[in-house]
Amino acid sequence: MYSAIALVFGSLISAVISLDNGLVRTPPMGWMSWTKYYCETDCVKYPDACINENLYAAQADRLAEDGYLDVGYEYVHIDDCWMSYNRTFDGQLAANSSRFSHGIPWLANYVHKRGLKFAIYEDYGTKTCGGYPGSLGFLKVDADTFASWGVDYLKLDGCNVNLDQMKYGYPEMERHLNATGRPIVYACSWPAYLIDQQDKVNYTEIGNSCNLWRNFDDISMSWRSIVSIIDWYVKFQDKLAAGQKPGAWNDPDMIIAGNNEISDDQARAQMTIWSIWSAPLIMSNDLRSITPSQKKILQNRDVIAIDQDPLGKFGKMIASTADIQLFVKQVTPLDQLTGEPSYAIAALNRATYPVNVTIEPWRLGLQNPSGYSLKDLWTGQFKGDITSVDARIHFDIVPPTGVAFYKATIL
Ligand SMILES: *[C@@H]1O[C@H](CO)[C@@H](O)[C@H](O)[C@H]1NC(C)=O
Ligand SMILES: *[C@@H]1O[C@H](CO)[C@@H](O)[C@H](O)[C@H]1NC(C)=O
Ligand SMILES: *[C@@H]1O[C@H](CO)[C@@H](O)[C@H](O)[C@H]1NC(C)=O
Ligand SMILES: *[C@@H]1O[C@H](CO)[C@@H](O)[C@H](O)[C@H]1NC(C)=O
Ligand SMILES: *[C@@H]1O[C@H](CO)[C@@H](O)[C@H](O)[C@H]1NC(C)=O
To answer: Which positions fall inside the Alpha galactosidase C-terminal domain (predicted)?
Structure first.
């Protein structure tokens, strides 16, 4: 399905150019340190909030024990600043020995014993964004090291390297990862460094090497940042949708739901729109001190099921007013005879006042002859069936900077 055959110099020698590692057929879910803890390395001043093994072990405990793993959050992601400033004498990466005193294999094993998977960070350039040793010149060594440590997922950033080199270097790392024989999910920051050169971004090419890719700016801890990502993704939605398929995902960056900087309505809005896109759900928050309401938002199984829908569609914004944007995504179940899909439908209210929304189903593309059953995914309430052509979908008052999120299941 992914393969393309290249004829080299007109001979019969052929090469299959494709990423076929069988991983992340639905978008990855997990927890990552970056947006909450950045590159905090002062463990004397911030013993519970610095990049060290205790932080990852503690968050792994919460994932496994507080219900997150049960609903799908599976990967524990180390981000930048975990390394020693120096490679070992034989060129291998090493963790900072005071902050990771048991070493990375110990931490990977700790994570694995809890039924979770272990994800690590590196950079394709000479140095990581935080100034630690990069992989340039060491791609094979680093792939082998990660495999030997029990790494299940690599995020490869793109600081400190010539942009034109990325189209060779990112695929090269995929070949080294593949050659280790260990299944390792491969997340590339490649297109995120080409924000201003969209003509150079070919998602088919990127998806032939990478399981997922960041496209745009890092998220930060604010509603404004969420909205800026939504605006950029909507602007390029046709191209993003065309480049996505199971195993090859756009990554709009971390879920910041679970932090006090955003309200519960804003947290529901982020979870909703990310699910419409089939985006990775990788939280960055402190699972030790999360509020019960935000925990419930992060663990909403109906919403997660839309994100993890096996069709893996990138849903789109299809209608808008000054305040409201309507997003629609085709999901399972499909009608067995006609193939007509079910739909997830989101109304995002960007205004600072509540808005009522009513829409005719056909405007959203809903045209199943026998109709749909409607469910509000945030309240869990059934909203009745739509069975006639002149039916209307009423979203209850959509809260300020919030959403309504329904599933219309074929009848
Ligand atoms: C390890 O990190 C600490 C800061 O927490 C730093 O002072 C030290 O130099 C680092 N050690 C190495 C070997 O990079
Ligand atoms: C470690 O790296 C730093 C800066 O990158 C360098 O100044 C130092 O000499 C290195 N130390 C060793 C033991 O190689
Ligand atoms: C390596 O690539 C081949 C061919 O695409 C694939 O069948 C295999 O599963 C891959 N192995 C790993 C470990 O990713
Ligand atoms: C994008 O990359 C694919 C795979 O390498 C290639 O077949 C296609 O022609 C490229 N598209 C453009 C517009 O360059
Ligand atoms: C919005 O809907 C609510 C409940 O359905 C209703 O009470 C209210 O009058 C509506 N507001 C407007 C402006 O239509």
So the answer is: 342-407
